[in-house]
Amino acid sequence: MPTTQTLAANKYPVTVIIGLEVHVQLKTQTKLFCGCTTQFGMPANSQVCPVCLGMPGALPVMNREAIKLSVRTGLALNCDIPPLTKWDRKQYFYPDLPKGYQISQFDLPICADGFVEITDPANPDAIRRIGIIRAHLEEDAGKSMHDESSGVSDSKIDLNRCGTPLLEIVSQPDLRSADEAKAYLSELKLLLTHLGVSDCEMQQGSLRVDANVNLHIDVDGKKVATPIVEVKNLNSFRNVGRALDYEVERQLIAWEDTGETIDDAPKRTFGWDDVNERTFAQREKEESADYRYFPDPDLLPVRLPREWVEELGQTLGELPAATRTRLQDQFGLKTYDSDVIVNQGPAVIEYFETAATRSGDARKTSSWMLQDVMRTMKERDLNAKSFPIPAERLGDLVHQIVDGKLDNARARDVFEYLLEHDDSVDAALAALGIESVNEDDIVDLCRELLAENPQVIADVQAGKQQAVGALIGKARGKNPNANPKVVRQTLLDLIAQS
Ligand SMILES: [Zn+2]
User: Fold this and answer.
1) Domains of the chain (ranges plus CATH)?
2) Where does this protein have coiled-coil stretches (predicted)?
3) Fewest CB atoms within 10 A around its CB: which of 161, 192, 240, 354?
């Protein structure tokens, strides 16, 4: 948010209208219409051929895998998959587009009319359904690099990305806040990585976002809309959030200043300045008529047989939304816990399921997962596969707590030990000298403590139950294996009997 401006002056109700266009690089070995590799980080212009360079007479050949990945995505996004799809040329001139046109899909996209469900960031128990207008396949352009370090402006072109398959997923303008936009992107990313469609590495440009945003302002019962701004090429979820927050405030102030509405200027194209944390105007956006779309004469339309699409549908596996519901129904997890676990991906889900089944207490297991396990993973840059404590062993540890053999503090000691030693929980208990203390010993210990601290008896009898708290630490000092909960209850029982 810009710090010098506030929303305070506004007296009209404002509805924020956001739609996102997400460009996802598909995880194919080769480009969309030629055999060049799509590997990231190779020397500039080393992954090119006459087809992706746009040499006259070179003919494109469609990549089947890209079609398959797109259909899988469309099915997971609840889209209709049409029986026929086709390729169109989108004409524009830019130095990083040597062909002078981009092969894309205009009026017959490969996926249409779907939706994604997200957890409402303002209410974790509510689900918001975000419509998907379409998803179409297209090829990426190259990359221009402007180097001004030598003092002389120097531009270079790297065409390695030219022809890389992108799926552009266009949402309905159903998002109502920057937080919702981020929740939608997280869910989309989760779905795409789950399907193995894309690795969604934003730093490598394999997921890029254009955000369309404007405001509907209710002026005494009459709806006024501000011009739509498309903020291009946002390369992190954080920047999507910041750009949207900034635009909401900027548009409101601009409207208050100038009264300009969507009728005066339908749409503008902006960029995001990460350093100064503001959006800025770019070239005016072309209308689709300016691109002179026409069917690509070098490529046949693509038939998508019903049976083939249905077969693909059966290979999707359990999608993240279904896993969340299952963790809630089968394991009794709360919405928040199931969200966190599912959002970590398949390996963490599997780890949790194994540990929870072993421990016999899914909620307690999930609380250990969300706190100790994930914190350690983050601190040590580990994942569920490289984590030193196997899922079964964590299950055994939690089981000891559930059984009352270990309190949380002692369990944490065992956890720390297991992080460093490839031992069973029993071996860890032995190594740490932890043994369960029998009831008689606890009673003796508590009697001793009460004899030494008669004031506590008087306080508890006067109604101050919390006074026993002072003795629990002392019990630990006498016997580190004494379970604080059991000590507390024993003390209260003895005082009641005295
Ligand atoms: Zn090529």
Assistant:
1) 14-310 (no CATH), 320-432 (no CATH), 439-497 (1.10.10)
2) none
3) 354
Which residues lie across from 131 on neighbouring strands?
115
How far is residue 419's CA from residue 397's CA, in Å, rounded to a whole number?
Answer: 12
Tens digits of residue pLDDT in 39-96? 988 999 999 999 999 999 999 999 999 999 999 999 999 999 999 999 999 999 888 9
- Quick one: CA dihedral 414, 419, 420, 423, positive or negative? positive
User: pLDDT at position 286, please?
Assistant: 61
Distances (CA, A) of 187 to 23, 121, 134, 207, 343: 15, 12, 17, 13, 8
Sign of CA pseudo-dihedral 367, 370, 373, 375:
negative
How remote is the CA of residue 21 from the centroid of ligand 1, in Å?
26
Interval between CA 52 and ligand 1 midpoint (Å):
4
Query: What is the distance in A from the centroid of ligand 1 to the CA of 269?
Result: 31
Is the pTM higher than 0.90? The answer reads no
Tokens of 369: 């997962």
b/e map 300-321, b = 16+ CB within 10 Å: eebebeeeebeebeeeeeebbb
Question: If you measure from the C-alpha of residue 20 to the centroid of ligand 1, how many angstroms do you get, rounded to a whole number?
Answer: 30
Mean pLDDT of 219-227: 92
